Amino acid sequence: MDMELRQLRFLVAIVDEGGFTDAAHVLGVSQAAVSRTLAALERALGVRLLRRTSRSVTPTATGARVVAQARRVLGEADELVRVAVAGEGALRIGYAWSALGRHTPAFQRRWAAARPDTELQLVRVNSPTAGLAEGSSDLAVLRAPLPDRDRRFDTAIVGLERRVCAMAADDPLAGRRSVRLADLSGHTLLVDRRTGSTTPELWPPDARPATEETYDVDDWLTAISTGRRIGMSAEATASQYRRPGVVYRPVRDAEPVAVRLVWWRDDPHPATQAVIELLTALYREG
Q1: Which domains can be identified in the chain, with CATH numbers?
Q2: DSSP class of residue 206?
């Protein structure tokens, strides 16, 4: 079936304006062009869409249904165009658990001052690509590496963050200024294997803690506050998620967490390089 959006626009204009003459005026074409376009649409669909008399033009029963659907199709087409051309006007940065920690306010303010024409939106999406694969974000901040086989994306490390242990405020370890990995091996560790930066492989094989899975930062904090579980995350989580009954302590012998910016390899957002430069500068400043 050979049908065009232009034909649907002409059909809707005829119905809205009540006739071919007024539709032609609104569309900026000749009345003959309107008639030819409608006839081509009716041939393509194989149905009659309008009843025409010397005094009025009204949709047939089928035509009324087609007009209603045409309005939805045209609306979606207009939205598609808006999204496509808004690439430089908006920038959505996805993150899974925490955005940029203590650097988040500075990043937002500096971006607004330097790029006022590009609206910045921080979007929390708890998926392995923080909404990038799903189309919910244009760039993503990740603290877990992407699989080596995934060649769809490019990445850049913009900074490093310390690892911290989250524990109940009445845990015996909470009285210390910092902890070691060995101090935690007898606890049960909550991990998010999809998006988290911590796995049991941080510990030696003979000293790994028991683990349970979680999928949301609020559930993670709720379980930790009971004292039955602990968690380990990047220091950005400690900055972004304060919770009564939960304290964070640095893990002084754990590897730092690499903070990665990720984008589509074949379709990078125009502001990607500017984001890399600003985030790298913020993390370098400390």
Answers
A1: 5-85 (1.10.10.10), 90-160+258-285 (3.40.190.10), 163-255 (3.40.190.10)
A2: G
Which residues, in sequence order, are bridge partners of residue 140?
94, 262
- Phi, psi (rounded to 5 degrees) for 27: -80, -15
Among 60, 16, 10, CA closest to 31: 10
Q: Tens of pLDDT along 39-59?
A: 999 998 999 999 988 778 899
Average pLDDT over residues 63-74: 91
> Is the per-residue pLDDT at 83 higher than 80?
no
**Calpha distance 57→24 (Å, rounded):** 14
Instruction: Name the E strands within 5-110.
Output: 50-52, 57-59, 90-95
Measured between alpha carbons, how far apart are the two ends of the chain, in Å?
61
| Rounded distance between C-alpha atoms, residue 25 and residue 198, angstroms | 65
What gap in Å lies between CA 98 and CA 195, rounded to an integer? 11
